[in-house]
Design a protein that fits this description.
InterPro entries: Cofac_haem-bd_dom, RETICULATA-related
Structural class: alpha/beta
Main location: plastid
Strand content: 5-15%
Domain Haem-binding uptake Tiki superfamily ChaN: 56-276
Radius of gyration: 33 Å
Number of strands: 8
Family: Belongs to the RETICULATA family.
Membrane topology: Multi-pass membrane protein
Strand order of the largest sheet: 2-1-8-7-3-6-4-5
Number of helices: 26
Length: 648
């Protein structure tokens, strides 16, 4: 498509969107969350910008062209999430500044500009547009669809700037010489215009001279055909971008989404920023690399690879994921040495996975002697406290609710025999404390920096099992950590694995509690022979009780505690993290309601499975579901015997 045609159609889109799109009212600008941004222009390692992103947005708003360079060799959906967030934020700022904004996409060949215009005018729907890019995978369309819909609904002009597929394939197979004369004039730069010494002279060389050593195929990453294809892409996109910038006016902004290799700063002058800078000042362009695979140290005199490096919260980087200067400041302010940290934190610092905020949380926890001993001696406590500094508060709330309601329920059930049967009360309560601990412990989110594969002493089967468990979150609602990319399958697996763990806890604890209760009953019967003659009902079956109770914990209790620990206390409560009292009250109320509701579920299940007969006697006070009241209900036959003895 010629520049005149592009200008004509883009002007049509501008006028149509101005008439047909209702401009949303200005609203408070939201920062892109759950991401890490680094200034790549500094000397040395890229510098993390922390929570204050104003420098980034100010520089972006001063630019006319913003490049978003995404991964090419291994595409990632995290890039699309970042692109969507950045475009939304720039749209809001441009709206407040009364600036038009456009979005150029390399993914759409430039010969589809007319169809993109129809899509913007709502002349065609998503399915029709999707049918025009049949070379895309279904997953790629799903990743682009939210961004396309947002641009259409908010009047962000869409520009197709990619090379037509048939042109690109011809160059990859035959080089520029394979193009027709008209296509060569449209898509290939003139000889000697900025790429080595031009295509014509090099194309006359033999294939041995053209291809690099050890190159077995005519087209590949190191072949000259691939270089020609890249230059054709850069030239075509640069011409389209320059035309779009002209149409947008001196006040407009153009966001370009393309592969990272096309926008990196370099000395050759064949990339997009270098080509555009010949027609426009370089300071009017900003390059952002999305989730780059590594961070390189920039030395004096070297050109930076980009202006900013932008990582999503779930993506790792091979160097300095967090600002080491800020980490050093936190360590120095607390008077800590690196050697005094636990091994996993030291390794996390080496891998660039420990943020200054996490390090500060650990140092704050060290101020309390008891917590300090727990965090140093038990890695599980450390991992949970780093992920949620209020983990011990949650545990204390759950145990307090459990013990209190269980003792009340026990007293209401046993009445005047409460102190005489203190052995049963103690057994049930201790079992409840243990199981309540695990119902809080297992679904709690964790933050670990140890590599599971480092355990070289473990057998292969154990390594495989640990690797599987280490690849899923501890809670279905846990936020993705650096280096982790949890999808829906991982989160479903975490529910299943958590259910198996709780079921095992319930099975073992139930066998222990019922067995100990039976032993105590035998001791009491030996000491008081009259009890044997007054027994009317059989005692609780150990195996059946353990199976039912284990299934109950693995399903109902597991799901409820996953929601409380992951959704309510890990996500929602973070919105009020500065209001400690409110967060604790939310946790207390939620866990109290959960205990009451869980008790009702257990009573119904116990009756349905025959562990509790349907009798006129009802439990006056429903205690917590997690174990204390479960223990009380598991021994319901025993309680019935006591009631019968009392009535006699």
């Amino acid at each position: 498509m010629s520049p005149a045609e592009i200008e004509k159609q883009t002007q049509k889109v501008v006028s149509s969107t101005a008439e047909g799109v209702t401009t949303p009212p200005p609203s408070e600008v939201e920062e892109v969350i759950n991401s890490r941004i680094y200034d790549a222009t500094v000397i040395g390692e890229p510098m993390a910008l922390g929570k204050d992103k104003r420098k980034v947005w100010e520089k972006l708003m001063n630019a006319r062209v913003v490049y978003l360079g995404e991964a090419e060799q291994v595409p990632t959906r995290d890039d699309k999430v970042l692109e969507f967030d950045i475009v939304k934020n720039l749209m809001k700022r441009c709206l407040e500044a009364d600036r038009p904004i456009s979005l150029a996409l390399e993914a759409f060949p430039c010969n589809l500009q007319g169809q993109l215009n129809q899509y913007m005018e709502k002349g065609i729907d998503e399915e029709t547009l999707k049918s025009l890019v049949t070379h895309w995978s279904a997953q790629r369309w799903q990743e682009y669809e939210p961004l396309l819909s947002y641009c259409r609904d908010n009047g962000v002009r869409l520009i197709a700037c990619g090379v037509p597929l048939e042109v690109l394939r011809t160059v990859q197979a035959e080089g520029v010489r394979g193009l027709s004369k008209s296509d060569r004039k449209k898509y290939a730069p003139p000889a000697g215009s900025g790429f080595i010494s031009g295509f014509t002279s090099i194309s006359r060389r033999s294939s041995i001279d053209i291809n690099f050593p050890n190159q077995s195929t005519p087209f590949g990453p190191s072949s000259y055909l691939s270089i020609q294809a890249k230059v054709v892409e850069d030239y075509t996109m640069s011409q389209t971008i320059l035309q779009a910038v002209t149409v947008g006016g001196s006040n407009g902004m153009l966001v370009v989404v393309t592969g990272a290799s096309h926008v990196k700063y370099g000395s050759r002058g064949i990339g997009l920023p270098a080509r555009i800078s010949r027609k426009m000042q370089k300071k009017n362009q900003v390059v952002i690399l999305l989730d780059p695979e590594r961070q390189n140290i920039r030395r004096e005199g070297e050109v930076p690879v980009a202006d900013f490096l932008w990582y999503s919260g779930a993506r790792p980087c091979n160097r300095n994921c967090f600002d080491r200067a800020e980490i050093a400041r936190v360590m120095n302010a607390a008077g800590w040495k690196r050697e005094a940290l636990p091994q996993d934190l030291q390794k996390g610092l080496d891998l660039g996975l420990v943020s200054p905020e996490v390090l500060q949380n650990f140092i704050d926890l060290e101020k309390y002697p008891i917590i300090s001993k727990l965090t140093h001696r038990f890695q599980g406590f450390r991992e949970r406290l780093l992920a949620d500094p209020k983990f011990l508060h949650r545990l204390a709330i759950e145990e307090a609710i459990s013990i209190t309601t269980t003792l009340i329920a026990q007293y209401e059930r046993r009445k005047e025999n409460f102190f005489e049967e203190l052995d049963y009360v103690t057994t049930d309560t201790l079992r409840g404390i243990v199981v309540d601990f695990f119902t809080v412990w297992l679904p709690a989110p964790t933050l670990s920096f140890l590599q599971i594969a480092d355990d070289i002493d473990a057998p292969d089967s154990m390594e495989a099992l640990k690797g599987l468990l280490g690849s899923i979150p501890d809670n279905a609602f846990q936020k993705s950590l650096a280096g982790k990319d949890w999808n829906s399958n991982h989160r479903i697996a975490s529910v299943l694995v958590g259910g198996l763990k709780l079921a095992s806890v319930g099975f073992i604890s139930s066998i222990g509690a019922v067995a100990s209760s039976n032993i105590l009953y035998s001791v009491r019967k030996f000491l008081n022979a009259s009890i044997s003659g007054k027994q009317r009902n059989k005692r609780s079956p150990i195996l059946k009780t353990a199976l039912v109770y284990g299934c109950f914990l693995g399903t109902s209790a597991n799901l409820r505690y996953q929601v409380i620990a992951g959704l309510l206390e890990h996500r929602i409560s973070e919105q009020f993290e500065d209001q400690t009292f409110l967060v604790n009250m939310i946790s207390f109320v939620a866990r109290t309601i959960n205990s009451y509701w869980g008790t009702q579920q257990w009573v119904d299940l116990a009756r349905y499975t025959g562990l509790q007969a349907r009798k006129s006697e009802e439990i006056p006070f429903p205690g917590p579901d997690s174990s204390n009241n479960a223990a009380l209900e598991c021994n319901i036959s025993e309680d019935a015997n006591i009631d019968e003895m009392n009535s006699q």
